[in-house]
Amino acid sequence: MQKRSDLSDVQKGMIIGFRAKGGSISETAEFVNCSRATVVKVYRAWQNGTVQNQRRGKCGAPRAIDDRGERRLRRCVRADRQATVEQLTTKMNQGATKRVSQTTIQRTLLRLGLRSRRLVHAPMLTAVHRRRRLEFARQYSSWTSTEWRHVAFSDESRFMLHRTDGRWRIRRETSERNHPATIAERSKLEAGALWSGECFPGILWVH
Question: Is residue 189 within 8 Å of residue 148, measured between CB atoms?
Fold first, then answer.
């Protein structure tokens, strides 16, 4: 007697068809050469719409880049986050028995969540800067909104005189926004930049 998991799609169809025409459970089991419990389970699954097709998931052409290739592509991106699709395609085809196109690389990058994004700009902080900022935050962490009303904050704007900001694009996942490799550190005072701002009188000056 065959179990339900051993039945082919044809045998499952025979059970469903025989039972739908009025055949009894015993007659169907004898006709298909399976147990009565198997007939009941297959026919009930068909009535509930949960019959599993053994060929499901196997249709269509296989992917040009398998799991191993995806891991290699991730390593290439992390080694050079500014690499273009053309450069990544060249690296993936080096020493490969099956070549892939730029379109395949682009689709794989999107499927892996490695989209092209702008660098996150953050101030260039030393260990001393981080320590002082932490001390400042701890010192005034208990202040109320009334106390902060007597504090003046500077409002600055920067205008580039000789060059652009140089917005580089990199590839990263959404969770890698604050990863050190995806941050472009920037000093507060850069050559060729004009700073302007305004301030208001207050008891405490915060810059």
Answer: no
pTM of the model: 0.45
pLDDT 10s digits, 57-111:
555 677 888 888 999 999 999 999 889 999 999 999 998 888 999 999 999 999 8
- Using CA of residue 176, residue 179, residue 182, residue 186, what is the dihedral sign? positive
Burial of 23 (0-12, 13-18, 19+ CB in 10 A): middle
Core vs surface per residue 89-107: b (16+ CB within 10 A) or e: bebbeeeeeeebeeebbee
